[in-house]
Design brief:
This protein has 79 residues and is α+β, with helices and mostly antiparallel strands. 25% of the residues lie in helices and 24% in strands. The longest helix is centred in the first third of the chain and has 11 residues. It starts with a helix and ends in a 15-residue tail after the last strand.
């Protein structure tokens, strides 16, 4: 998770929020690998050693930040 956060910054973005990942799940599931999961930038509320992720096969969940996972950087535009 820490490496994913740093990578996203290095490419001029950040990890998506849990809500943004849910939007990707709802709108782009057909374009994602079923077993693919992506980190969110959100730490779990009750345990700072966990972070939220989205698995495009079944949905949003959380796991240890020490686990290896994929990352997708997002940029937000200001209207």
């Amino acid at each position: 998770w820490n490496d994913a956060m740093e990578w996203a910054k290095s490419v001029g973005g950040e990890l998506p929020s849990r809500r943004e990942l849910a939007l990707l799940l709802a709108n782009c599931r057909d374009h994602m690998e079923k077993d693919d999961w992506q980190w969110s930038r959100d730490t779990h509320e009750s345990d700072a050693s966990d972070a939220w992720f989205c698995n495009f096969g079944y949905g949003v969940g959380y796991t240890r930040k020490s686990y290896e996972g994929r990352a997708r950087a997002v940029r937000r535009s200001v209207p």
